[in-house]
Design brief:
five-stranded parallel beta sheet, 11 helices, about 250 residues, 2 domains, alpha/beta, elongated, five-stranded mixed beta sheet, YaeB-like fold
Length: about 250
């Protein structure tokens, strides 16, 4: 893909300056050049970017360098917050939800933020929720292929989304047929998942299917979120360690 010439301002947070100095000497000049071209790179290569709890990451393929940044596309300015290279082992979690449930997705991610901060786990999710639209096909397929775990936030809006039902869920099942890959789901609101998605219903649920999180009081929901996310984090750690132990030396 040809790089799109665009004019963006790029600034660096103190954490970015420090992390750049800590990169191997031979990678620092390239990392600096990539940061200066960040706006055009992000526009030209959306498949190389992924969403995190606190911002976005551009992942340069050769050599492998990650630049974490705060999206300033509307103001035509980006704030670089972190450089990473060489990269630590990365375990990617694909989070799927309906845009109607964005508030719950944000609440859930608060309990998973530390996983990203450790640099061992990354999260992919669409900021506006995944709805029908062909422009997302390639990005979602690429994200699923790179992921080791899928986490689905189940509501009736999720089940009623044509894109999720007809494209995303089949891609997840196809990916699950080639381990290692696991699918987990969380009952957020009452739904007909047992009728509309029986295969998904038979997979591992995090939380009480009879008592969806969205129907609990705020205090109880936070307690259950802590419980669910703790269980999920422990499972991610187990899977990540298992994947690392099976990689050839």
């Amino acid at each position: 893909m040809t790089e799109v010439p665009t004019n963006y301002g790029v600034s660096r947070a103190p954490s970015a300056v420090l992390s750049l100095e800590q990169l191997p000497a031979h990678l620092r000049p390239l990392a600096s050049q990539l940061a200066l071209r960040l706006g055009s790179l992000v526009e030209s290569h959306p498949e190389r970017t992924y969403r995190t709890v606190s911002g976005f990451v551009y992942q340069h393929p050769h050599p492998l360098i990650e630049i974490e940044y705060v999206d300033g596309a509307q103001e035509r300015a980006y704030l670089v917050t972190q450089f990473r290279a060489p990269l630590p082992p990365r375990f990617m979690v694909f989070i799927s939800y309906s845009r109607h449930n964005e508030e719950f997705r944000r609440e859930f991610c608060k309990y998973l933020g530390r996983l990203h901060e450790t640099g061992q786990v990354s999260f992919w999710y669409d900021e506006k929720g995944i709805e029908i639209g062909s422009i997302w096909d390639d990005e979602i397929r690429s994200a699923i292929d790179r992921s080791s775990v899928a986490l689905l936030l189940i509501t009736q809006e999720f089940l009623d989304s044509p894109f999720i039902r007809d494209k995303e869920v089949p891609l997840l099942f196809k990916r699950a047929a080639t381990p290692p890959f696991e699918i987990f789901w969380i009952p957020v609101h009452p739904s007909t998942i047992n009728l509309d998605q029986p295969e998904l219903y038979g997979r591992q649920a995090l939380g009480d299917v009879k008592k969806p999180l969205g129907g609990l009081t705020l205090k109880r929901r936070r307690e259950k979120l802590q419980e669910v996310c703790t269980k999920f984090r422990l499972r991610i750690q187990e899977l990540s360690e298992s994947l690392q132990s099976t990689k050839p030396m």
